[in-house]
Amino acid sequence: MALIPPIVTVMEKACKNASKSLIRDFGELEKLQISRKDMNDFVSSADIKSSKSIEYSLNKDKPDFLQIDEETFKISDKEKLNLDTPIFIIDPLDGTLNFMHGIPFFAISIGLVVKKEIIAGVIYNPILNEFFWAHKGMGTWLNGTRIRVSNRRHLEDCMIATGFQIKNQSSLPSYFKEFESIGSKSGIRRLGSAAMDLAYVANGKFDGFWEHNLHMWDIAAGIILVQEAGGIVVNDKGQSFDLSSDLSLIASNPSIYQELANNL
Predict the structure, then answer these.
(1) Distance between CA 25 and CA 21 in Å, rounded?
(2) What is the pLDDT of residues 11-27, one digit of tens each?
(3) Whole-angstrom Cα distance, residue 1 to residue 126?
(4) How many helices (H) and strands (E) does the chain have?
(5) pTM (global) more than 0.85
(6) Which among 111, 109, 88, 107 is positioned nearest to 99, based on CA atoms?
(7) What contacts 163, CB < 8 A, 6 or more positions away?
(8) Structural domains present in the chain
(9) What angle do CA 59, 64, 68 make, to 5 degrees?
(10) Which residue in 126, 181, 194, 214 has its CB near the most CB atoms, within 10 A?
């Protein structure tokens, strides 16, 4: 078992403190206050409480670090990515719709970025008690055990995860073509949390993942999990993913990457 780096311990503490209220709210969903941000895009009181808890915890332990949080994000926050100061990129509850419906596939996600480079990430599902972490050069770990991407070599043997945004109606026809192309060659799942999808690619449960119209907080932690587990993460042009500009992502084990990309 690897010695957990101090910065990862800070991120773990923030996740697990915030998870206490998520666990309580998950057990009392009928009391949850919910508001709509957009079509099939909601924010709950659980998201807000988790966000505030993480902000407080990280500020207490690393007051000199910056933060970008889904629930408080402003367009100008993207400028922080060019600074030398480390930045925590936070999704306090990825998979809100699952959470609201009592489906235990959601997570807290925190990535640590310095000048656009992701150097550490944690993803925590408090209901399944799955704590994933990765740090540059130290591999990817799940509850104390090192994990790696799968070694399946052919798309027909694989399980591929994806996601799509119903609110982006104009993009659905092209997305469904991709869905048909991949789905005709492999198993395919849409489970509703990009953070967890990427964690499961890192763990070899999924062999690959793709999605469009993503945000940096959806994937910052998951990217380094996959990379440190031996996987490949690129944008839809096959180039290194840029958190400040790219919206489409492909992640997979190295053996099927080209076949997956060729079918998108």
Answers:
(1) 6
(2) 999 999 999 999 998 88
(3) 21
(4) 7, 14
(5) yes
(6) 107
(7) 190, 191, 192, 194, 197, 211
(8) 6-147 (3.30.540.10), 155-262 (3.40.190.80)
(9) 65
(10) 194
